[in-house]
Amino acid sequence: ARMMMMGLHFMGEVPFEKVLIHGLVRDEKGQKMSKTKGNVVDPLQLVDTYGADALRLALLASAAQGRDLRFGAAQVETWRNFVTKLFNACRFVEMNEGRLDPAFDPGRCRTTLARWIVGETARAADTIGTALADDRLNDAAQALYHFVWDDFCDWYVELAKPVLTGDDPAAAGETRATAAWVIAQVLHLMHPMAPFVSEHLWRALLGREELLARADWPELDAELIDPAARAEIGWLIETVSAIRAARSEVNVPAGARLDVRVFGASPETLARIDRHREALQRLARLGAIEPGRGEIGGDALQVVTGEAVLAIPIGGVIDLDAERARLAKERATLEKTIAGIETKLANRQFLDRAPAEVVEEQQARRDAARSARDKVAAAIERLSSLRRMEPENP
Description:
single chain; four-stranded mixed beta sheet
């Protein structure tokens, strides 16, 4: 109100057309910050340690409408890591001679990978733009994080590497131009939330002289979204993710390359496997991928992708009995933890006397333990479906 009145008095203009009121910023435990408690977070110290944009992004990502913010250094560190991830992606593009080409037309990309990332960029731009217009700043920040970290860095960059070093100059050139174009769109979308980093990269990487703050907001046509490319790369991502999850569940060593037998696959799925064989082998740490014959072996992990089943023998890679025992022990520990928390939450005196943030913390611990227990149970069920192959009689 004071700034409003002073603006009217000295400038003769209304200084703000819109005022966004957010919740109270609390500490990591949900307690109100106070000097007496010693839990006040010094923003200047956070800026010195993590950077101003990391602090800004952390606050925006936590600012859900109608709720107080739980805030601490951990959130700022998360967003500092995000900024570092973006810097590394920009360095990757620069090292591979990616340049923003004014003649580049994202709607005329030839490769499936380029059409996919262009479409995902258009989807992200629509999501972030709509969230900002609706003052859902946390949704805008989270959508930015997901697109940059997951879609671009984790998948596009990894899938683009062999294209850039391959023997198809046209595909490599398109990949370089596409990557630079995507980075430019990311910097546009990021600028309202992280002006310093985006402005720096806009000039340093893309060599732009004009201020990003004065550049037009990207208007990306929905026609840039290619359903066929999205289905193709989506299948690849889903398949690699499912294989990785199955390996992780049963504690397969990360460096082990496992052979795969494919059962029940349609001609379309077999064609996809053939097109993406190198990516599947590299990203999911697989050996040979061949059609399955006869019955699925009893010591094989089974990963379902569409109508097909990928059988991955692991009997000679891990000790199945020892792994079952380890998982059973872990499940028992989690069950004990859950029971203890549920006993506490069922205690009326605890609920009446404990601060709300303490109750919420216990509920969050219970939910996390339940989620972990369910994952362990899924791993046990997966292992239980395996049986040791009996040696054939000579």
